[in-house]
C-alpha cells in the first residue's frame, strides 16, 4: 500500500532548507526509496511549509529513514526550523489521477461506441497526430471520420497495459486486438485475427482530450494481413 508522510514546518530560511533537500537527493541516489516529493507554501503565511513525501509502502519509508544521509539532513533541517516539525503518516486508501481515468474510459469505449459519440471524449479544437496521416487531423469531425474508417475495417478492443500521468498529460501503453472484417488500405476483408501494440500520449483540458500522439506497429499489422514479409 502506498505510504505518504506529511512534514509540517515553519522556517524563515527556506532557501537553505531547499539546498539541503537537493543535497539529500544527490547523496541518496541509488539508495532512497522515496518516489515523489512535493513542498507547498502556505499562501497566508510565508514561513509555513508542508512537505509531502511518497513511498511505495510504509516498509520502504522505514528503509529510507534508516539511511545515514536521511538522518543527517533531517537534523540539519530541524536546525533551520523555527519550531520542531510535525509528522503525519498516511496509508493511501484512494489514489486516482482523474485524467488517467478519462484516458482509460476513452480506450475502453473505443471499438464499442458509435462514431457519433467520440466527441464525448474530445474538446472541440482537438488535434490528432497519427504517423500514418500526412498532417494532423483537426477537430472532432475529422477524427470521427478517421475512427469510423477503423471501425468499418475491424472489430476491435483495446487492453490497457500501463499508464503514466504528469500534469495535464497521460501516456497509455496498450494492446489492440481485432478481426479484419472490412476493407483496410485497399486490402479486402480477410477475417484474420490481428493484434498490435502501441502507445498514445494525450493532453487533457477540463477532463477532455485536446491532443493525442499515436505510436503503433502499423507495419506489423500489414504483415499479419499478408501484405508485407511475403
From TrEMBL:
<dbReference type="InterPro" id="IPR009959">
    <property type="entry name" value="Cyclase_SnoaL-like"/>
</dbReference>
<dbReference type="Pfam" id="PF07366">
    <property type="entry name" value="SnoaL"/>
</dbReference>
<dbReference type="InterPro" id="IPR032710">
    <property type="entry name" value="NTF2-like_dom_sf"/>
</dbReference>
<dbReference type="GO" id="GO:0030638">
    <property type="term" value="P:polyketide metabolic process"/>
</dbReference>
<protein>
    <submittedName>
        <fullName>SnoaL-like polyketide cyclase</fullName>
    </submittedName>
</protein>
